[in-house]
Amino acid sequence: MSLTTIAEKGIPLLRDFARWFSWDRVSQRCRSWTVLEWLEPYDAVIQFGDQSIASKVVEARVALATLTFGYPSTEEQRKQYDPLKLRANLETSVLLRNIIPLLLKGSLVAKGFRCPMVHDAPYLPITCSEWLILYLDINDGGAEGEGIKYAGITIGKARTKRLFQRCRTSIS
Question: What average pLDDT score do residues 109-134 get?
């Protein structure tokens, strides 16, 4: 008689043991162990995206930041600000189109809080198939689509960590 059939018959300790060490639970835990460093969405897009586009995004955002602190106040600043903002948004959307296939394939993995968030909410891995309908917002650190919303997302490169190696977090 196998462990699963014994557990199905109602022996509470074995039933709990089988539930705790089920393949789904163990494989989910092992997937989360394989990421060495979790990054905020903006940092992950810059690090794992196409580097030529990423450098253009960084340049455009630096130019916006040096132009003003917030929205421009004078007419001359506004004339410079609008094209820079448009360029930064276009290059960011191109860079996001390069990142989403990596999340779909599973070479990048993401975790986040499912909204609406309640007290003691779990920090859940976002499945690869959910990225078919989710739109990643790197400015807010969230993803939303078709009624599903995640907040506080972090992204990491899969299979970069050994089993007993400690995980690093990035501070932006």
Answer: 88
Average pLDDT in the 124-136 region?
90
Tell me, yes or no, if the pTM score tops 0.85: no
Check residue 156 and give left, alpha or beta (phi > 0: left; psi -120 to 50: alpha): beta
Query: What pLDDT, on a 0 to 100 scale, did the predictor assign at position 16?
Result: 63
pLDDT tens digits, 42-59: 888 888 888 888 888 888
- Averaged pLDDT of the chain: 77
Place of tokens 């650190």: 141
**What's the distance, Cα to Cα, between the start and end of the chain in Å?**
54
Residue 172 burial (C-beta neighbours within 10 Å; 0-12, 13-18, 19+) = exposed
Region of residue 168 (left: phi > 0; alpha: psi -120 to 50; beta: else): beta
CB 101 within 8 A of CB 131: no
What residue segments make up the domains of the chain, in order of their start? 34-162
- b/e map of 59-92 (b: 16 or more CB within 10 Å)? ebbeebeeeeeeebeeeeeeeebeebbebbeebb
Give 97-117 as a 3 state SS string: HHHHHHHHHCCEEEEEEECCC
